[in-house]
């Protein structure tokens, strides 16, 4: 429902209501929103602007970069480096921390982001997104280094995602619940349409890449097999399954109608603790999920409590409706 409140008004109201979201953070979130509008436009243009397909390059994680991975990363850097609120940035697409160029005003915050989440979907016109996390810069040097970013998720000042789906939405938390805004293209504003989003506690939907089943650990095998067993199994009811391969779309579905999402620890590549990245995927999504009344865990530990060890560190992720995540955590404890 159109509430008539746009993002800028909402942030100012939130500041008055909660004494959080100081004017600096309001300004930063406003610029992040502008970046997401520009990315929405780039993604929407699709093949018209010749941005489909891959590059020769790989990012630090050894993944082939899509043209749009690089373009959207540059959009985020270009708009936010001159916000005046940032001391530095880090992203999935850059090996090291990004230094704010000389001549731009430096601020007190750090921005970590995944500019294009689900980018394998972009050539086939399936939903993609952007994920971001705002941290405080506690250091003294004018240019932060990677270690300055390595703060547990509980220290996030704000987190959010943009979903470029059948409509473009921005979903945001500043630690006082979760609110969703829809992009009104006629006026170019994000408008509050989903106030106070909460994850339904009961669910009958799970999301996992089932092609990895042979690599899963016993607790995840047990949980999924019980779901698949349906009405005649131990859960006594039928479950449905979805896998978009865009975490943003997956988390958004869970915020709207409940469910559980898992990219668990597996034995596929013992060198990797999981697939998803802590700093710019797991942490911001975990804050949103917890703020919406859900839970987020590796199966063994609350994700927001993890002390990061690297900008591109990977973690297992199990998040969504509280009761289901509690059940999977319980299966890990029993194992
Ligand atoms: P990215 O496109 O930023 O690399 O992230 C993709 C992630 C995540 O969005 C999704 O849940 C997962 O990778 C999908 O992985 P599979 O292709 O293994 O299903
Ligand atoms: Mn991603
Ligand atoms: Mn990405």
In short:
This protein is of the alpha+beta class and 335 residues long. 31% of the residues lie in helices and 24% in strands.
Q: CA-to-CA gap between the ends?
A: 45 Å
Rg calculated over all Cα atoms: 19 Å
Oligomer: single chain
- Percentage of residues assigned to helices: 25-40%
**What CATH architecture label of the largest domain applies?**
2-Layer Sandwich
Strand order of the largest sheet: 4-3-5-6-7-8-9-10
* Count of separate structural domains: 2
Set out the fold topology:
Layout: H1 7-18, H2 23-45, E1 54-58, E2 64-66, H3 67-80, E3 86-91, E4 98-99, E5 109-117, E6 128-136, H4 146-149, E7 158-164, E8 168-173, E9 178-184, E10 189-194, E11 205-207, H5 218-229, E12 240-241, H6 247-257, E13 260-263, E14 276-277, H7 278-291, E15 295-297, E16 314-315, E17 317-320, H8 322-334
Parallel strand pairs: 3-5, 11-12, 11-13
Antiparallel strand pairs: 1-2, 3-4, 5-6, 6-7, 7-8, 8-9, 9-10, 13-17, 14-16, 15-17
Helix pairs in contact: 2-3, 5-8
Bound molecules: 2,5-anhydro-1,6-di-O-phosphono-D-glucitol and manganese (II) ion (2 copies).
Keywords:
8-stranded mixed β-sheet, D-Maltodextrin-Binding Protein, domain 2, 8 helices, 335 residues, binds 2,5-anhydro-1,6-di-O-phosphono-D-glucitol, single chain, binds manganese (II) ion
């Amino acid at each position: 429902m159109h509430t008539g409140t746009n993002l800028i008004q909402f942030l100012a109201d939130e500041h008055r209501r909660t004494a959080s979201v100081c004017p600096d953070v309001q300004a930063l979130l406003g610029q992040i929103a502008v970046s997401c509008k520009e990315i929405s436009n780039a993604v929407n243009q699709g093949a018209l602007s010749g941005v489909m397909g891959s590059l020769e390059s790989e990012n630090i994680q050894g993944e082939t970069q899509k043209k749009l991975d690089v373009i959207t990363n540059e959009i985020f850097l270009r708009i936010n480096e001159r916000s005046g609120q940032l001391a530095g940035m880090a992203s999935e697409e850059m090996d090291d921390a990004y230094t704010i160029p000389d001549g731009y005003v430096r601020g007190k915050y750090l921005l970590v982001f995944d500019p294009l989440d689900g980018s394998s979907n972009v050539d086939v016109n399936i939903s993609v997104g952007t994920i971001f996390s705002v941290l405080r810069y506690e250091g003294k040097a004018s240019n932060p280094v990677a270690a300055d970013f390595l703060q547990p998720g509980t220290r996030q000042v704000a987190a959010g995602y943009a979903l470029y789906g059948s409509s473009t939405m921005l979903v945001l938390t500043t630690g006082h619940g979760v609110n969703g805004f829809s992009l009104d293209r006629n006026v170019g504003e994000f408008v509050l349409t989903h106030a106070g989003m909460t994850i339904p506690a009961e669910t009958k939907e799970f999301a996992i890449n089932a092609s990895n089943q042979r690599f899963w650990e016993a607790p995840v095998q047990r949980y999924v097999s019980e779901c698949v067993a349906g009405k005649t199994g131990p859960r006594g009811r039928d479950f449905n399954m979805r896998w978009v391969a865009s975490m943003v779309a997956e988390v958004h579905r869970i915020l709207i109608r409940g469910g559980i999402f898992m990219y668990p620890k597996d034995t596929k590549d013992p060198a990797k603790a999981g697939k998803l990245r802590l700093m710019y995927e797991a942490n911001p999504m975990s804050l949103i999920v917890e703020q919406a009344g859900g839970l987020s865990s590796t199966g063994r530990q609350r994700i927001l409590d993890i002390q990061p060890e690297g900008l591109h560190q990977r973690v297992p992720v199990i998040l969504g409706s509280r009761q289901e995540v509690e059940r999977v955590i319980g299966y890990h404890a029993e194992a």
